[in-house]
Design a protein that fits this description.
The complex is a heterodimer of chains A (328) and B (498). Chain A is mainly α and 328 residues long. Chain A contains 15 helices and no strands. Chain A is globular and about 65 Å long. Chain B is α+β, with helices and mostly antiparallel strands and 498 residues long. Among the domains of chain B are: 100-186 and 213-352, Rossmann fold; 364-424, Dna Ligase, domain 1, CATH 3.30.1490. Chain B contains 16 helices and 22 strands. In chain B, the strands form six sheets. In chain B, strands 3-22-21-18-17 form a five-stranded mixed β-sheet. A four-stranded antiparallel β-sheet of chain B has the order 5-4-19-20. In chain B, strands 7-6-11-12 form a four-stranded parallel β-sheet, covered by helices on one side. In chain B, α4 (97-121) packs across α14 (344-352). Classes of the chains: A mainly alpha (328), B alpha+beta (498). The interface between A and B is medium-sized, with 33 and 32 residues.
């Protein structure tokens, strides 16, 4: 696959995932605020979200919710992420299924059509984004052949999700201490993890059970460990390296982080503190993203040559399976 | 804006009864008694027999099909590049087998002569030495690439893909209006129009025994592979696009996807040691054939326009070295020049010793002094065209122009006679078309597609373009044109292919 195409697929996927997670955070926090004490009211109450998402612009005079949801000036606002996802999808329309493009295109057009004067504009944007992102993943799952196209889309999805889940776990760090206990509910809700938590731990939500689920679960698809395991598998699928070995820096960095998550638990965070622990995970994830870019996206003259025969054959196979699916 | 006209001002049957030929050559009805021509009788019966409801629901489903397939082109008026569907008329244009067989022979003859001409002027220059064509004319052609003389091309093919524009005059005679030998577009509409018509009016389609056009992508890929410079089983072919904001981007992705080849931008390719490679996630892959949808000028910033960001630095070195084939080749624009057009009949006689099967339209060249005088005198009655423009730009339709416009063009022609040609106003044939709720005659042309690699393939059909504005003779999509599906009927005497 062309490096540029791989990069477009990856960013299409990362952008929609980013929009989705941001929308989830806003909705969950909004609902939490309705029950919060007087200290967490007004503009000030939203600042923790800016902190965990590393957003913020001192020169912006928009209120925080507008800034996060619909601001044109914030490159990471939900609406800009959706736009970016759509533009990246447009560039690779011949690679993804028609329905994937239609879903992103429709979401973008729908968001654009909500009048600025609509009082519920922000919650509508969030709800539509969350719903559409779920549909997008469903379409992706049932329409994309399991080739490199799939692998790069999934790579973007899991890398972004791992990063966002880790940030959500970091939310209590930025809250007043008496709000922390309640905040774990917000986190679980933002990650659609409330039901899973109830099944596993019963009704009581505390720091230990919630962060165990969101950081270390091997089965919950939004946990950091689950996501990193997927990244590891996908990178191996792309390069053809066997599990447990590595061929490039992206694979090595992923393997190292996965090992750390596999062989530790919430009790090992200990002296380091949750905030610093999560911080170190984010540093590792950034490193992985950087190495993926170095290895697969950057144009380099010294990239190793591939055999034309093998290339055309794999491309033909992918095409055939795509056409087969589109005819069904 | 445009799209598909859904509202009808009355029942379709009545529309047919009120239809007027108005003295034009009409594809479906004879001029004298407004009688339906034989090949159209089933289509006319079919549409007349449709209930209002069925007609409306069919048109709606057509519109949905186009939107859903994303058969769009981009307009830039709102700064964001809105995608629109290309206006489409559901009444198909029908061409009987014997008529088509003449067209096909004419097109084959013409493309053969054009390829021989290009090879000749980039090597021996016989046609110039023997004074069949003035050397000056070739030398001054804007798209002449003398610096590429002597480059050896597989099968000596220069124009691999040709979209020749045909019209029918007032007597129904097919004539060539122009040869589009650079990067002709529109083939995706031909394919999508057919798909939509088959889906919407299957019973009519079936009853008529129509030649299929959906082989085009396969034929195109076969042609691309046949011109690969490397002798190996599976040459790597790519489609080079200017990018996703180009107005024809839909067509680029459509064709690449149908052929199963990579669609690349300039930045995806690098040239190393006179070979072209694309950068993939598995490393560099050598490219053999580039179906480029970028004009010569933008192909290589080291060679042509330095400011081009669309091209590939040093691509011309690899081309010269014979390590990559460009489709179409460099320098085909000389054959596209509207002044060269006037010499195509002579080329056919010179290279093939045959008489042209498809005639040209009478053409006056600004470069010939006596014709220039005539042009300047009769400008109000002529169509004046700039030799290197396309898409309906840079032209004057004398009878429809104001005094000021004519005066302005007269100055332009005087200043640069070589840059202009003149032709009589041809009253293009008309075809029944559903417009503004009425069935009315509208002027049409025809762009068939001709592929030439090792051999020449003419796709039976093409893009019929319609001037949707009443009275307009301009069919280009940028100027309010739409399209129709084109049905070439099978020769029923010959057994259908299995």
């Amino acid at each position: 696959m062309l490096s540029r195409v791989a990069e477009n697929l990856y960013w299409m996927s990362r952008s929609i995932e980013r929009a989705d997670n941001l929308a989830r955070l806003v909705v969950a926090h909004q609902s939490e605020l309705l029950d919060a004490t007087s200290e967490l009211r007004g503009e000030h109450a939203w600042h923790p979200l800016l902190e965990v998402t590393s957003m913020g612009d001192e020169n912006s005079n928009e209120d925080v919710v507008t800034y996060m949801v619909s601001s044109k000036g914030n490159p990471d606002s939900i609406i800009n992420c959706v736009y970016l996802a759509r533009e990246n999808a447009r560039a690779v329309r011949d690679q993804i299924s028609e329905e994937m493009w239609l879903e992103l295109n429709a979401l973008w057009l729908d968001l654009k059509n909500i009048p600025v004067t609509d009082r519920d504009r922000h919650s509508k944007i969030c709800e539509m984004t969350i719903r559409s992102a779920l549909q997008f993943r469903g379409i992706e799952n049932s329409s994309l052949p399991r080739t490199d196209v799939w692998a790069f889309v999934q790579l973007g999805e899991y890398l972004e999700r791992a990063d966002k889940t880790s940030r959500i776990v970091d939310l209590p760090h930025f809250l007043p201490s008496h709000e922390v206990a309640a905040a774990w509910n917000t986190m679980l809700r933002a990650c659609s993890a409330t039901a899973e938590h109830r099944h596993r731990y019963g009704g009581e939500v505390d720091a230990s059970s919630a962060s165990t689920l969101l950081l270390f679960s091997t089965t919950f698809p939004r946990s950091v460990r689950f996501c990193v395991r997927m990244i590891d598998e996908l990178l191996h699928q792309i390069s053809g390296t066997s599990a447990g070995e590595y061929l490039n820096e992206a694979e090595r960095a992923t393997g190292a982080l996965l090992a750390r998550l596999n062989f530790s638990g919430v009790e090992d965070i200990g002296a380091m503190g949750l905030h610093d622990y999560v911080d170190s995970i984010q540093t590792d994830l950034n490193r992985i993203g950087f190495e993926i870019m170095q290895r697969y996206f950057l144009l380099r003259r010294d990239a190793p040559p591939a055999s034309a025969e093998a290339y055309v054959n794999s491309r033909m196979q992918a095409q055939a399976s795509m056409q087969q699916q589109q005819q069904q | 804006m445009f799209g598909i006209q859904i509202a009808m001002s009355g029942p379709v049957k009545e529309q047919f009864e009120n239809y007027a030929v108005e003295g034009f050559f009409d594809e479906a009805f004879s001029r004298e008694e407004s009688k339906c021509r034989t090949m159209y009788s089933e289509a006319v019966n079919f549409f007349s027999g449709l209930s209002d409801e069925r007609m409306k629901s069919s048109l709606r489903s057509l519109e949905r099909t186009f939107l859903k397939q994303g058969v769009t082109f981009t307009v830039y008026s709102d700064g964001q590049g809105t995608e629109r569907i290309f206006p489409f008329d559901p009444f198909p244009r029908i061409i009987p087998a014997d008529e088509w067989s003449m067209i096909e022979r004419g097109l084959r003859q013409r493309i053969k002569a054009l390829n021989l001409f290009l090879k000749d002027i980039y090597s021996d220059r016989r046609i110039l030495k023997e004074k069949i064509m003035p050397e000056e004319l070739v030398k001054t052609s804007k798209h002449n690439r003398a610096e590429f003389a002597g480059v050896k091309l597989p099968h000596d093919t220069y124009i691999h893909i040709c979209g020749t524009d045909l019209i029918r005059d007032n007597d129904g005679r097919y004539c060539v209006l122009e040869d589009n030998g650079r990067c002709p577009s529109g083939v995706s509409y031909m394919l999508e129009n057919r798909l939509a018509m088959k889906r919407t009016f299957p019973e009519l389609y079936r009853s008529l025994n129509v030649e299929r056009v959906d082989d085009y992508p396969r034929e195109l890929l076969k042609m691309l592979r046949s011109v690969s410079p490397r002798q190996q089983d599976t040459p790597v072919c790519v489609l080079l696009t200017p990018g996703q904001y180009n107005s024809a981007y839909f067509e680029h992705t459509f064709l690449a996807q149908q052929m199963g080849i990579e669609i690349v931008e300039g930045r995806d390719l690098i040239v190393d040691n006179d070979r072209v490679y694309m950068h993939t996630t598995r490393g560099l892959v050598q490219v053999d054939v580039i179906y480029r949808r970028i004009d010569d000028d933008f192909l290589d910033p080291h060679f042509f326009r330095r400011d081009s960001t669309l091209g590939v630095p040093d691509l011309m070195k690899a081309y010269r070295a014979g390590n990559v084939t460009l489709v179409n080749a460099i320098g085909t624009g000389v054959a596209d020049d509207k002044a060269t057009y006037a010499y195509v009949p002579d080329m056919i006689r010179f290279y093939l010793s045959e008489e042209p099967i498809l005639p040209n339209i009478e053409t006056f060249l600004g470069s010939r002094p006596e014709e220039l005088t005539y042009m300047l005198e009769k400008m109000e009655n002529l169509v004046i065209k700039a030799v290197d423009e396309a898409g309906g730009y840079g032209m004057l339709i004398g009878p429809a122009a104001t005094k000021e416009e004519v005066a302005e063009f007269r100055e332009k022609v005087k200043a640069n006679p070589r840059g202009y040609i003149a032709q009589p106003v041809i009253s293009l044939s008309r075809h029944p078309t559903f417009c503004d709720g009425e069935l009315e005659g509208r002027h049409i042309d025809l762009r068939p597609f001709v592929l030439t690699g090792e051999e020449t393939v003419v796709i039976p059909g093409g893009l019929t373009r319609v001037a949707l504005r009443k009275g307009s003779l301009v069919v280009n999509s940028s100027q309010g044109g739409g399209s129709k599906d084109t049905w070439v009927l099978r020769d029923t005497a010959a057994p259908a292919e299995v």
